[in-house]
Amino acid sequence: MNFADHRFMKVAGPLINNKEFQRMKHIKHHDESVYEHVMNVSYQSYKIAYKAGLNWEATIRGALLHDFYLYKFDKTFRLRLPVDALKHAVMHPVRALENASRLFELNELEKDIIVRHMFPVRVPRYKESWIVSMVDKYLAVQEYYQNFRKTTSKKYREQYNPVSFDQVRYNEAN
Ligand SMILES: [Fe+2]
Ligand SMILES: [Fe+2]
What does the pLDDT profile of the chain (174 residues) look like in tens digits? Predict the structure, then answer.
């Protein structure tokens, strides 16, 4: 994730600076927060979409909002956990789209990226939606692995020191 990427930040900035969007910083997800996860998914998807000559602006915005469901999914063990996990997998993109539509003006492509990112639950209609769905899965696996290593290896915990997004603030004047 490169905050010096002016092209990315010009499109992402207005969303990132939104107060509701910032709430994702406090919701844990895989290894870090939902905020860090969507930032990574958005940036990696944007790089692919840009190189492929696709709609990279919609890719950035859709990816930033793809997990904008704003609740913490409880993973503590209980009998209903598999049912609840399935419900969450199916419904969180719908909730994300509802929240995003409330705050931002979205085009068809952005809506598709959000609501269809959980392939095979829903099949993406656009190339940009496929990119976000695949990048999301790829990074989720990486994040789960990092989480697993951190909880099982002291050495890994000490070595792993990511740059926090909180350390960098986007200045709209730039
Ligand atoms: Fe998701
Ligand atoms: Fe995601």
Answer: 666 799 999 999 999 999 999 999 999 888 789 999 999 999 999 999 999 999 999 999 999 999 999 999 988 999 999 999 999 999 999 999 999 999 999 999 999 999 999 999 999 999 999 999 999 999 999 988 888 888 888 776 777 655 444 444 444 444
Q: Could you tell me if residue 100 is inside a domain? A: yes
The CATH number for 124's domain is 1.10.3210
Which residues are in the CB-under-5-Å shell of ion ligand 1? Answer: 67
Beta carbons within 10 angstroms of residue 152's beta carbon: 9
Per-chain residues with Cβ under 5 A from ion ligand 2: 67, 136
DSSP letter at 25 equals: G
DSSP string, 1-12: --TT-HHHHHHH
Number of domains the chain contains: 1
Strands 28-29 and 32-33: antiparallel
Cα-to-centroid distance, 67 and ligand 1 (Å): 5
pTM: 0.87
* Residue 174 forms part of a structural domain: no
| Domain assignment of residue 34, given as a range | 6-164
Which ligand sits nearest to residue 144's alpha carbon? 2
